[in-house]
From TrEMBL:
GO terms for molecular function: NADH-dependent peroxiredoxin activity; thioredoxin peroxidase activity. The active site is at residue 49. GO terms for biological process: cell redox homeostasis; cellular response to stress; hydrogen peroxide catabolic process; response to oxidative stress. Signal peptide: none annotated. GO terms for cellular component: cytosol. Its EC number is 1.11.1.26. It catalyses: a hydroperoxide + NADH + H(+) = an alcohol + NAD(+) + H2O. Residues 4-159 form the Thioredoxin domain. This is Alkyl hydroperoxide reductase C. It holds the Pfam family 1-cysPrx_C. It comes from Shewanella gaetbuli. Homodimer; disulfide-linked, upon oxidation. 5 homodimers assemble to form a ring-like decamer.
Amino acid sequence: MTQSIINSTIKPFKATAFHNGAFVDVTEQDLLGKWSVVFFYPADFTFVCPTELGDMADHYEQLQAMGVEVYSVSTDTHFTHKAWHASSDTIGKINYPMIGDPTGTITRNFGVMIEEDGLALRGTFVMNPEGEIKVAEIHDLGIGRSASELVRKIQAAQYVATHDGEVCPAKWQPGEETLAPSIDLVGKI
């Protein structure tokens, strides 16, 4: 039986990212103190990956306004990330750190490594400011993700974190009614 990654704390790592035209060191400590998204994808210079990373770039300003930092991760190097950023209009609009994980340490820490290929599954993880994983979503390689749905999930996670005793129902949007679980609700929904 496998233990759930939900509510576990991010494991230590050290990596190099391509960010804002420079190579920067990133560790698990950089993810603490704010909400963070770690967004795994299989490889640079591929097909579904640029659509996902571009979609995330389109939502990055909104996520930043919500106090969320985004980190994309693949098993490519930070040098490959720089080359892809320079050669693709879609990837060129990315302003969030693109972490290189050629050793697979981070990818394995999150349980998304495809060992026989040395690539990551499409994994999305949302951490609270304490570094606890609150959202985990893993897709097969052919299934792209939606940044707008990720934004909604983060809004729900942030709401629940600040409203003790309340939970967000399916398709909840900010401003909509939440639920307060109690015995009185059993069988009433």
